[in-house]
Design goal:
By secondary structure, the chain is mostly beta strands. The protein has a single domain (3-115), classed as Jelly Rolls (Sandwich), CATH 2.60.120.10. It is built from 1 helix and 8 strands; from the N terminus they run βαβββββββ. Strands 1, 2, 3, 4, 5, 6, 7 and 8 form an 8-stranded mixed sheet that branches. Strand 5 and strand 6 form a beta hairpin.
């Protein structure tokens, strides 16, 4: 798979305030192995939906923390010195400056909360 098509990332804010967010409809419609859609903005942060399978790239966010929450499936987060495994309904925060790589051995649905300016592939 070519690098630019490896990840289907949408940084546009899909839902406005006071609008119902039907995340399941987005999950059901997705066919890409690594899909990321910004759902909404909350103050200076965004909530992103990921439907993922496979490996993401190693990256770092120099100025922002990142939070991962598994809705369904299983997510591995590789850190320099260990791997953290998240099962359904588990969450994990990665502090700014920490190099990490998310991996999903099976199709996994996640929510991420991060600063609105965060680029998913890192700084």
């Amino acid at each position: 798979m070519e690098a630019e098509s490896a990840f289907d990332t949408h940084l546009d804010i899909r839902f406005a305030p006071l609008e119902l967010i039907d995340a399941q409809a987005l999950v059901d419609a997705n066919t890409h192995p690594w899909y990321n859609q910004t759902l909404c903005r909350i103050n200076d942060c965004v909530v992103r939906l990921g439907v993922v399978q496979g490996e993401y790239v190693w990256h770092t966010h120099d100025d922002e923390d990142e939070f991962f929450y598994v809705v369904e499936g299983r997510l591995l987060i590789d850190l320099e010195d260990r791997t953290v495994e998240l099962a359904e309904r588990n969450g994990f925060s990665v502090p700014k400056g920490v190099r990490h790589r998310p991996r999903a051995p099976e199709r996994t649905v996640i929510l991420m909360v991060e600063g609105a300016g965060v680029v998913p592939t890192g700084d």
